[in-house]
Fold each of these.
Amino acid sequence: MARGQASTRERSVEVKPAPMAGLGDMARPKLLAGVPFDPRNNALNLVRLMLAAVVIVDHTFPLTRGLPSPHVGPQTLGGWAVIGFFIVSGYLITGSRTSRPLSEYLVHRVARIFPGYLVCLGVIAFGAAPIAYLADHGTLDGFLSGNTKPAMFLWLNFTLHQAAFDVSGTPADIPYPAVWDGALWSLWYEFMCYLVVGFAFCFAAVRRHSGLVITIGYAASVVVMRFHTTVLPYVDNSTDVYFFIHLLPFFLAGAVLFHLRQHLRYSIAGAVLAAGVAFVLIVYVPVCGSHLAAPFLGYLLLWVGTVLPCPALIRREDISYGVYIYGFVIQQCLVLLGLRELPIAVFAMMATALTVIPASLSWILVEHPALRRARGQIAYPWLRRRMRPRPVAQELA
């Protein structure tokens, strides 16, 4: 019997529709009353993508005009974006460490950072650099015998620590010469922060009192930053130590917020208060004001990640890392093509749009498969036929 015919013989029941909530009623719980941060339903991928775009905007000034990066208070525009990356990473990475053993944690961290990074170095050394060299010299003769050969560029930089910036003298005759990817410098310090959190949780006392220990660690890192001029002479004024001292408090601030996740509610009132406190600390506290403001800046970022609408595609596919590591390269290529005279806003938008292409390819072909392999899974169904299935015993190990 057809479904429609059956329904006509059934006894009709009047159902009163529930009153539809207005936009104000729908928004009030999220914006005013506050909600906890949802680790599965948030816009942090979009937040990080916007931070990566800010880095591209910041780099546009020195790369196209030879001008200093614009400052906002004590930091450059790109500096604030890097700070945002470290705070968000501190929150997420601490959660990763508390949910898995050290060995698995390290495998995941390596899988997240290194494959995309190494491929990026290869693209520079064997893609962008030879094309730039050919355009400058009309031949590739001498490309493999320059001061920084392609293989040497890979060798000197493969540990994340940046020791070589040009490849055989390229890029040349531009406002910011002999540097292919000036955005990679922060990755080494971020990975050092991964190790700090990773090994700290090896101690039972830290695991038992993790919130207290992380908070004390954050406070101590701020104190060290406040007196860094006293500390640095003991390490020969190392710039590596300085940047680590500078960035660690932001990472640990994110870790503190993770340990407070059960108690924090993200609301517009809290965001306004956090913004006010952060502004006062940044403006009126010398040297370490931004470091003291880090938890409040983190609250703002997580609040944005809570209320900002995020397309499902961006929530599922995270290309922010690829945009960060390829943005500088794409900008240098555009400058080499003679587009540096474009208005800064136009150049920045063009560079950002074009960077999405290698960033997406990096995520689909390199980063996501590496992460899924680290978890013992297949990244995309169409990759299944290219990868041998594992024995059942290995899957269950």
Amino acid sequence: MPKPMRRATQLAPFALLKTALSPLGMKRATARVAANQLLKLLERSDDRSLIRLTKVAEKVARTSHHRAQMQQLRELFENKHPALDLVRRLSTQLHPNCRRSLIEALTVNATWIGSVERKRFRDAHGVQPPTLMVISPTMRCNLDCTGCYAGKYPRQGDHLDLATIDRVINEAKQMGTYFFVISGGEPFVRRDLFELYESHPDCAFQIYTNGTLIDDKVVERLAELGNVGLAISLEGWQEETDARRGEGVYQQVMATMDRLREAGVFFGFSATSTRRNVHVYLQERFIDHMVEKGCLFGWFFMFVPVGKDDDLDLMLTPQQRDQIRSWTMEIRRQKPIFVADFWNDGCLTDGCMAGGQLYLHLNYRGDVEPCVFMHFAQDNIKDIYARGGTLGDALKSDFFCAVRERNRKHKNRLQPCMIVDHNQWLEEAVKQGKAHATHPGAEAIVTTHRDAVRAWSREYAKLADAAWESGEYDWAKKDEQDLWATARTRGDEDVHMWGEEDAAPE
């Protein structure tokens, strides 16, 4: 005679039905239907279908903020803005699995449904969960780059096992976070991470990589998964890249880009600006070359003296930073590629993202850091779990609260950073939160380098204030509903990309 079913097993179908019929379950079902419509329209790639795509997206968007974005994107398409060519490239270049994940995981789950779930979590627990998380599962790397921001972390051992990372991701999803950035180290030294990407098809992953360990088998696996995009590091042309990363690296990266493009994998470039290479990034032909290689996006970073070879002479001059700020906006106006600058585009995120405001960093040891460049922590996720806590407890730590109290006080969103723009705030937050340095020498940014960094920030503030008051950023000073309306009159699609909607979702 078969054994009687456990009560939990007997009730499981009813629990699933209850979830499916809940308001959120119904919204998910509606979103899945809309996602299929969006995919069909994206596959066609003609102007009419892509314009119609924005109308379908507008209907399924869960907040007025996201609906306004779709309305404004439609107007850009109708005016033949390069954004239309970018979306057409997504249609024609990407593998079907990657297109599906771009719609379902990144757009529907991480952005639309996620924003509703994050608001629900905030209302219930009194703290805003992050829109995305950066996880560095290893500090091992096959390269030894000059000035690496993570270069002072020990490279021996991977202290975060797969089960712990999986738990973190599951808890983050319960808060409404579906976008995860994998950094390091070089993530591709850990091939077990593919199990993680495969077990969370509802999530979007982006991997920062040096691009040298990606062979044909890896490319094939990425295309099969669909939910993993790559940001490949470059320092400019061959001369600049090989000088910082090692001889032959540039050609390896070019070959990797070719393989990824041919397989239809979603990828872009990641560029760290220093005093020695910023002139390359300011060249139009560099951006054109990245588009030709198949890059669909590009991230500009600025060297900050927080890791290996923390030489202040590698920092951009204030004038160079102002140049890259202006050029980044021009690229968005002119080229079929989306680029953003993590220091000069604070207007897109309404200020600093750190401390759980919009993101946080989990390093290789499990230390919960406010930012990948803030090498300080109060909590370790493994210690939190050992005492029966959850990821949400880290958001409420004294250190994270101290960061969030400060990191959006300044009205000029062109000076968002607590590390280089408002270094004194970082020092105050570390002391208030009783945070410790997460590797030897990390404290130098608020001790040895403090005076020089603060003098540098005062010089840059003059340029940033002039830009902020020039009228070019008036759209960023208005209510969310007006942002794209102002930008589109100038052909510029800048917007608070990750802004959370304060009003209740409709």
Amino acid sequence: MSEVFSKTWPIRAIGLVSSVLFFGLGCSVIGGNLVSQDTIAATPAETVAETPSSSPNPANIPSATLPSETILWWHFTTDSTQKLALEMAALKFMEMNPSVTIQISSMERDAYKSRILGALESEDAPDLFQNDGDFAARNFAKSGYLQNISPSMTDAWRSTFVPSVLEPYNLNGRQYGAPCSFSMIGVWYNKAHFLRAGIDTLPTTWSEFLEDVRKLKSAGIVPIALGEGDKWSGALWWEYLALRLGGRAAFEEAVSGTGAFTTNSFVQAGERLTALISAHPFQAGFLNLPTYPDASAEFGNGKTAIHLMGDWESENQKANSSDGKGLGSNLGWFPFPVVENGNGDSKDILGGVTGWLVGKNAPPLTIEFLKFLTSKEIVCRLAVPGSMPAVLDAGDCLGDPFPKSVWETAVQAKYIQTYYDQYLPAAAASATNEAIYGLFAGTISPAQAAQLIDDSFA
């Protein structure tokens, strides 16, 4: 399978953990990439994945001039383009700040998640580390592992970010980090199939969407691709409906315990989803279609008309199609419809955020490095499908028309609802996916699904 991107940050496992120490003597921009002209690589703490030089000090610089302040930087970025961009950012920052050494530890996401808590509890805790603005981030803040960077979050710096994606790194009014990228779920569709079904106006409401599903079925077209075997992709439908019906307030109240997942908006989300399921809009065998890429292939091969998925789908429907071309000019996109009589803001979105948290004992220049990492120059180098830039003036670095149009819609949102399986504790995240799978399978009712999710917080 060609490069396939995840719903948060593109992942391609490398099966290698590296800890490499870099500092730059000079960097230049060549062909749009920062290229180190002369670097020094100290002996790595673990296996070296990429070492600019085999000599500990190839330039023979006197030790008195070597960096005196070290930033320990952890990340789980394994996409080769993004990983190189991060390493070059470190080189550039060290060129601008000769007193700084940046020690990079890069590993695959699962290994990262298994090690980060232990690292934060140790004497060698990372000063800056990657995070999805998730449940773990809130726990780290509550446990005192993070530094409150609010005093450094000036209005000038804050104003550079897409407002909705800055919030996941804020707890009780304290800022503990900043985003670099985000993703958004929307409705991808096949223009040719819509035309054949007589759909000449894109749906903006749930009722209109259901009517279009009926039109597609009447035209002999399978309306929707879904690979419910991995369960998270089906949960996106319910999560978006809950966002449209109850809005931010209902979700935050349910999570905090001042409300509940058994309240009307969550039960009604299940009822709206059940109405869709009862129309039999999905391809045969959707419950057991193993993974998201399988559903993406169904859509990219033109076998279905719609796929609810993230901004990465513009590339993935091509990569997963049998000819590697996908839908071509027949690919279209529109935001998730408004649900009539719902309390949610029509511009709010379901998606994910990736950024950086600052460790409690991080040296002062860590925040300056974070500012550099969240600058347009760097976030544009990290922009790939599934990683839209989190700064407001970076839209012009999205060349493909679809990610840019998605980004232009996403930046209007006042609130981004983080995927439940990232935002919620592990038990609740699993319960959500299982409960919604039950709705698709027809084994539980909307009220029972809501109760199962609510019970997982007990």
Amino acid sequence: MTVPGAGDPAARGTRPGRLGVGVVGAGRVGAVLGCALRSVGHPVVAASGISAGSRDRIDALLPGVPVLEVPDVVERAELILLTVPDDALAPLVAGLAEVRAWQPGQLVLHTSGRYGTAVLAPARAAGAIPLAVHPAMTFTGTSLDLARLVGCCFAVTAPAPVLPIAQALVVELGGEPVVVAEEARPLYHAALAHGANHLVVLVAQAAQALTAAGVEDPGRVLGPLLGAALDGALRASSVTDGPGAIATLTGPVARGDVGTVVDHLAELTALAARDAALDVPEGYRALARSGTQRALAAGRLREDAAQALLDALTDPPPPPDGARPPGPAGTPGPASPPPRPPDTPEDPA
């Protein structure tokens, strides 16, 4: 199959196969990927951005690129990067189809981890080539991200005849394409969100507890410990014939040390009462239960030791009807927050 624009090297610089790129949604992801594609010879012909932050990123990462309305970006480009929030993607694709913006032979690439190519069906019906390419990393929206793309895994999903196009684009950026089936995209995205987003929550909880213990710089204390734990768990996850990351579990759960676990819960429950940190003992219980069950399944705990841990980790009884959980010492519990209006999607985080 011929990639659009591949036959006109003069129009796309000195290298053959260069594509005119349009960035729809110059948020932290779109501006960086546009810059990365530009650095390997694909000219960025137009970009769209609603917020002041997006326009600042275009100025910094895509200098000289005209900022246009979305239909104008689509009209100019051979490769369209749709880097918008997940919930905005389907309406955007359908809306552009309604105004007949899509062109036969265009490459339409979205970066949502949640979706495969089915969300691009209106563009495909107009003759566009659908590609779903999700970089498995977080973005700052600055030039620092460019080096981090090298070696990064990208989930690629596309119809079989055009899958090599998506893979080739990833390789050009220095990334590693990982093929994910259309029906597996939601599970893939849930796994990444659970691992990365909830890791941040875990660090926040641990740092709060350390601060309460009088540690001035929690990040410095946690860094070496969490770095080593994460490195070991990831290495073990890559061993296909072993028990996986749980093989590297250390600490009181791995030792079956019920007394230490009980003491931890008492301290964290006291912290929750003092500092409105109710999620900390709840999170500890949930993760310790999961660790216990996985360690038992991997043969690292005896059944009686695991049961003793699970008994200690049972949820506390609920407060009496009408009672609110305690806030900081000497204050009533937190009031329910007022309803929050839904966010208006602009550019992606």
